[in-house]
Amino acid sequence: MSIQEDYQTAKKQYEKWGINVEEVLEKLQDVPISIHCWQGDDVVGFETNQQELSGGIDVTGNYPGKATTPDELRSDLEKALSLIPGKHRVNLHAIYGETNGEVVERDQLEPKHFENWVNWAKENELGLDFNPTLFSHEKSDDGFTLAHPDKSIRDFWIRHCIASRKIAAYFGKELGTPALTNIWIPDGYKDIPSDRLTPRKRLKESLDEIYAVEIDEKYNEDAVESKLFGIGSEAYVVGSHEFYMGYALKNNKLCLLDTGHYHPTEVVSNKISAMLLYSDKLALHVSRPVRWDSDHVVILDDELREIGLEIVRNDALDKVSIGLDFFDASINRVAAWTIGTRNMIKSLLYAMLTPNEYMKQLQEDGNFTERLALMEEFKTYPFGAIWNYYCEKMGVPVGETWLDEVKSYEDAVLSKRI
Ligand SMILES: C[C@H](O)[C@H](O)[C@@H](O)C(=O)CO
Ligand SMILES: [Mn+2]
């Protein structure tokens, strides 16, 4: 059967449950995913005085052909975007600024250093999001930044974050969609601290100083990203979930939940509804931790489906900023973006093709038998036929055929890079 015929047959099965599939597809194409640029070059960036990756994060693998220049990275992103249905956003870090070979300190970065990115985003109808980079720098070498005991170091990172929010506001003004500026810091201790409070007081004061600079939310929104531990901060992280949840709620910022930043049996899907009870908006970094915050490429596993279901069930497609955060250097990096982003969109489609109101009523009625039975049966409903039709409708390759395009791109472009 053709994709169209498969779709018509599948559609009827979902329509039996009162699901308007055409409406679902219309809605889905308006849900942007923020695609992280740093999968494309192993979180290196383009600073003139590049430093080793630090901050307790790690990239493993050495698949050939990674981008080493802004044009190469934008070309690779364009290739990936051509294989992903819908209109999306690209998430930048401050280390991806372009300074024409000049050494520009991070607290001196300006919008002009991201002009090429804005022009590119305009040409490709993309939104841009941003992150100050508080790692891979000599002033973060001892593992502390905004919570550092030395005020001069804290002040440097405060200036960098203030400069970053101004750059993000420039994105928002130029592109007509507010940028999300997410702050994540590596500050923490390898071993058991003797004082957990003082660094947290310093972090709070630093954030208060950063956010004291008024920026119109029409152009920039602020998120703070928590973490459980990093390499070298196994015993204690200043910016824990409790710290940032409290800070975000008290200061009307977005709390950003990274799916790799919790205990192995703790899931972010279980946090979304509770967080949205107390804050209008939430941000995610969807990743895949394997044994630790390993930042594996996102796959369509139970947790990803549950995240999609929680966002859709809670009518939160316009309340949750969905960002991706993984960096796998062991596979073709364009393929990594494509797999992870297509899976995130599949997860949302799966959720939108679930009779959520009916399922909620089953729960209210205490009919846990049918609730479980249907949850399981829907896993073998013809979701793939709808996904294939959606990809065809959106002009991107259907099924695994996108891989042929990545292979051709690798032969023609990536393999030519030294
Ligand atoms: C590069 C990002 O800032 C980084 O991955 C951060 O979001 C994080 O999750 C650190 O573990
Ligand atoms: Mn993250």
TrEMBL record:
Main location: cytoplasm
Compartment(s): Cytoplasm
Regions that span the bilayer: none
Keywords, in A-Z order: Cytoplasm, Isomerase, Manganese, Metal-binding, Rhamnose metabolism
Reactions catalysed: L-rhamnopyranose = L-rhamnulose
Pfam families noted in UniProt: RhaA
Pathway the protein takes part in: Carbohydrate degradation; L-rhamnose degradation; glycerone phosphate from L-rhamnose: step 1/3
Named cofactor requirement(s): Mn(2+)
Family stated for the protein in its record: Belongs to the rhamnose isomerase family.
Name of the protein described by the UniProt record: L-rhamnose isomerase
Source organism: Virgibacillus natechei
Organism ancestry: Bacteria, Bacillati, Bacillota, Bacilli, Bacillales
Gene this chain is encoded by: rhaA
